[in-house]
Write a structure and sequence with these properties.
about 120 residues, mainly alpha, 5 helices
Length: about 120
């Protein structure tokens, strides 16, 4: 019962079970290495994925979290022939298409019909 007269909110348990604190410091070294990597790479998580994976593996080995396949946690196994060059691209190169620019693309020129708005 809510003392303020509103509806009470029921707490839900986490989907993956409990995630206890590492009070004994069993995985502290890996955690500090991961945090240092993120700080030295200007908060770019992609450069520190291997350390993140190692931290989760450490927690699973020490029974600080439920053992689970790493592919379910977002980590993919590297396959043979997978190119390392794909990972070297910067974020801008991944999302920016230079082909359209080379063809003379100008944004907004393909809009058809009259547009009525605030300034028209």
């Amino acid at each position: 019962m809510n003392p303020f007269g509103g509806a009470s909110i029921q707490a839900k348990p986490p989907e993956k079970g409990s995630f206890p604190l590492d009070r004994a410091g069993q995985c502290r070294a890996v955690a500090h290495e991961f945090l240092g990597c993120i700080e030295s790479n200007k908060r770019d998580y992609s450069a520190c994925k291997d350390l993140s994976k190692a931290y989760l593996q450490c927690r699973m080995e020490k029974n600080l979290m439920q053992k689970e396949d790493l592919s379910k946690l977002g980590f993919e196994e590297k396959r043979e022939g997978q190119e390392e060059a794909k990972e070297d691209k910067t974020r801008d190169e991944k999302f920016y298409d230079r082909k359209r620019e080379a063809e003379g693309f100008v944004g907004g020129t393909g809009v058809k019909g009259s547009r009525k708005g605030y300034f028209s």
